[in-house]
Amino acid sequence: MARPPDDANAANNAKDERREVKVARIAAGLAVAIGCALGGWTALRAFEDKPPPSALVLTLLAAAALEIVTGVLMLARARAGWAFAVSLNVLLAVAAVLAIPALVRGGIAPLLAAAALGALLALIALLVVAKEAF
Fewer beta carbons within 10 angstroms: which end of the chain, N or C? Predict the structure, then answer.
């Protein structure tokens, strides 16, 4: 089997790198969107008639802020931001799987809970695919 010329390999590698950078930017934007959504949802829940415990509110707001910060760091192509985003989102996904039954019993629409978990899983998949961009 004949090997393609080195110029063709270089062109393919550059094309793959551009694709990974695009995926990384999408992942960063999704991380910022998830952080904003989590922060907004937490703020709305904090001012209800029967708010959740203050420790939970503070923890969710901190997680939202960290999600936004990791998204911004990923936009700057910082590997530390990518690594922290992977660990944070895996942790949030595990917590979401465990919390979804209680959230649904508490009045959250099942479709909304499933969409939130789906967004987290999609973000994790994008982060794994975009690993080489960092």
Answer: N
DSSP class of 117: H
Check if the beta carbon of residue 85 is closer than 8 Å to that of residue 70. yes
pTM of the model: 0.79
* Rounded distance between C-alpha atoms, residue 3 and residue 89, angstroms: 41
CB-based contact 101:79 (threshold 8 Å) = no
Q: Name the token pair of 34.
A: 């998830």
Predicted pLDDT of residue 15: 66
Distance CA 9, CA 15 (A): 10
How does pLDDT run across 32-67, given as a tens digit for each residue? 999 999 999 999 989 988 888 899 899 999 999 999
DSSP state of 8: H
Long-range CB contacts for residues 82-89, cutoff 8 Å, separation at least 24: 82/24, 82/127, 82/130, 82/131, 82/134, 85/27, 85/31, 85/123, 85/127, 86/124, 86/127, 86/128, 88/63, 89/31, 89/120, 89/123, 89/124, 89/127
Please give the single-letter amino acid code of residue 86: V
> Residue 130 half-sphere exposure, CB side, CA atoms within 13 Å?
28
